[in-house]
């Protein structure tokens, strides 16, 4: 697979590691992927969770931790790859996270969980590359048109996410329950997006590579994505069961032990359906709720007075190893994960 050019950046291996929060993809994982020539991605979601000050000062702690993690990741790359951050568009203080990441010298900003309408304005004049995460042709058309008309700007690369992806979904529940049909629509949409971006490539005189995300596990999946016209892939869940993943060993082992029957779609406090691993917590939430005693003010879309649980709290429990009382996001193929590997070996398995 050939290298991919994103403006003046060269991605030696056409793979982006998916941004996984809370604490799943921090500097260690992102730095390792970038060191192998890919794009390592740090999730900004509650990135300061390990700091003793976090509970009382979450926003301040997150913004202090972010540049530290970016610096660590860049040191680990030894100049081989690209370090990006994933900032959900529904994040409170979104602008502050963007500005902090730019100030820390991050190479790219990836933004999904909604449409990042103002990202070009926030990054104007900076060297940083920007990319939305999109799930449909309609969303791509709306966003690229708005960026062009309002900001006289366009994306540097695009990530198009299939219904096989993990975590929060840009699909309705009925699509997620009819995956084969949903994927046919996705593949048609992908081809339309590839045609659509050619318009903006011509206007802005630059290449806009497209990366396919969701359920990418091995070289067969990668080859299929490339046959559809993609320039590369984004991989998330597969990187969890690696030596370099920032999560606890208990967290990693939960994926090694998982089967297809453990997958379930839930309604997240973010206001989107999410694919997760079934556990004791999920079973409880199917018929009840948990009292929210502390709000971390993390997401614009979450109302603690009506939410069934605090998503930050349960994601932190999970990453720290309490896998029965936490929340574990997952793509559709955890049953194919059967061991801990190195990042280098995972990338080799992908044929990249």
Q: Profile the largest sheet.
A: 8 strands, parallel
First CA to last CA: what distance? 6 Å
Query: How many strands in all?
Result: 13
Query: What is Rg?
Result: 19 Å
**What is the helix tally?**
12
Share of β-strand residues:
15-25%
Q: Would you identify the regions where 5 or more consecutive residues have pLDDT less than 50? A: none
Q: What structural category do the secondary elements indicate?
A: alpha/beta
Shape annotation: globular
Q: Strand sequence of the main sheet, in spatial order?
A: 3-11-10-8-7-6-5-4
List SSEs in N-to-C order: EEEHEHEHEHEHEEHHEHEHEEHHH
- In helices, the fraction of residues equals 25-40%
* Average of the residue pLDDT scores: 94
Protein described:
- It is a single chain.
- The chain is an alpha/beta fold and about 350 residues long.
- Helix content is about 35%, strand content about 15%.
- It is built from 12 helices and 13 strands.
- Strands 3-11-10-8-7-6-5-4 form an 8-stranded parallel beta sheet. A 3-stranded antiparallel beta sheet has the order 9-13-12, with no helix packed on it. A two-stranded antiparallel ribbon has the order 1-2.
- Strand 12 (about 265) and strand 13 form a beta hairpin.
- It is globular, with a radius of gyration of 19 Å.
- The termini are close together.
Short key terms for the protein model shown above:
352 residues; 8-stranded parallel beta sheet; 13 strands; alpha/beta; 3-stranded antiparallel beta sheet; 12 helices
How do you describe this structure in short?
The protein has twelve helices and 13 strands.
């Amino acid at each position: 697979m050939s290298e991919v050019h994103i403006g003046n950046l060269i991605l030696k291996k056409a793979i982006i590691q998916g941004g996984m929060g809370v604490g799943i993809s921090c500097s260690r994982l992102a730095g390792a992927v970038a060191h192998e020539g890919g794009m390592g991605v740090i999730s900004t979601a509650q990135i300061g969770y390990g700091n003793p000050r976090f509970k009382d000062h979450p926003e301040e702690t997150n913004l202090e931790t972010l540049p530290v993690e970016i610096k660590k990741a860049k040191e680990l790359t030894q100049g081989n790859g690209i370090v990006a951050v994933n900032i959900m568009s529904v994040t409170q203080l979104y602008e502050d996270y963007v500005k902090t990441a730019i100030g820390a010298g991050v190479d790219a900003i990836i933004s999904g969980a909604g449409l990042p309408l103002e990202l070009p304005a926030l990054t104007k004049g900076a060297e940083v590359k920007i990319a939305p995460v999109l799930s449909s042709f309609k969303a791509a058309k709306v966003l690229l048109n708005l960026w062009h008309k309002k900001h006289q700007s366009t994306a540097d690369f695009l990530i198009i996410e299939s219904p096989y992806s993990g975590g929060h979904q840009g699909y309705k529940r009925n699509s997620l329950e009819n995956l084969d049909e949903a994927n046919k629509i996705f593949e048609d949409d992908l081809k339309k997006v590839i045609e659509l971006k050619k318009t903006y490539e011509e206007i802005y005189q630059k290449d806009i590579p497209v990366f396919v995300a969701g359920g990418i596990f091995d070289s067969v999946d990668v080859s299929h994505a490339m046959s559809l016209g993609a320039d590369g892939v984004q991989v998330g869940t597969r990187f969890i069961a690696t030596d370099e993943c920032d999560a606890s060993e208990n967290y990693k082992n939960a994926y090694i032990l998982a089967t297809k029957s453990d997958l379930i779609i839930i309604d997240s406090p973010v206001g989107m359906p999410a694919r997760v691993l079934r556990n004791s917590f999920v079973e409880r939430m199917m018929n009840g709720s948990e009292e929210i005693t502390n709000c971390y003010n993390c997401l614009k879309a979450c109302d603690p007075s009506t939410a069934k649980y605090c998503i930050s709290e349960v994601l932190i429990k999970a990453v720290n190893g309490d896998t029965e009382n936490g929340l574990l996001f997952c793509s559709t193929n955890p049953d194919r994960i059967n061991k801990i590997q190195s990042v280098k070996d995972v990338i080799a398995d992908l044929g990249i």
